[in-house]
Prior knowledge:
The chain has seven helices and three strands. The protein is mostly helical.
Amino acid sequence: MKTHEKKRLSNAYHEAGHAIACLELGIPFKEISIIPNDDTVGRVLLCECELVRQLEEDDTSIVRLEAEKYIVALLAGLAAQTKFDSSSNRKMAGQDISVSIQIVNKLFTSHKVGVSFYKFMTAQTESMFDDFPSNEYPDATTETHDLESDAWKNVVLLVKTILEKDKLNFEQLIELFPEYEKNFENLL
C-alpha cells in the first residue's frame, strides 16, 4: 500500500472513531469528512459545543456527564486510528487531545486528579473498540470474527463508506446506522 493511501485509510479510521463514538453517546454532529482543508486532513464537525463555558458557569452533574461524553468522543479518533495501525502518525490527534485536556482542566482543580481522570478516560475510550463486547466473554468455541465489538464493526463499515464518498452528513449516517436513531429522538 502506498504511503498516501495508508495515510488516507488511517485518517478514515480516525474520523470514523469520532463519528461512531458520537453516535454511541448521543452527541449530535453535522458531518464526517476525509477531504483535507487548510486546517485538517479530516474532521467530524460537532454541533456548536459551548461545554467549556458551561463548565465555568454550571458545574452540575449533568454538565459534567456531557463533558465526559465529549472527552470520549474526542479521544475515540486516536483510539480507532491506533487500533487500526498502532504505528500510525498520532499528530492528527493533537487538537483532540488539547481540547480534551482543556475540558479535564475545567472539571478538576487538582492536577493529580485531572491527570488520573484523563488516563481513566483514555482507557475507557479504548475499551469502546475492544475485541469483544464487555457483556460477553469468549470461550474456546468462539469464532474470531465474533469477538469484534459492535462499535468496532461500525467503525470498519463507516471507513469503507467514507472512503467511497469522502463526506457524509448526519442524516446519511443515521440511515447507515439506524440503531443509533434512538439516541437522537429529540433532534430528529
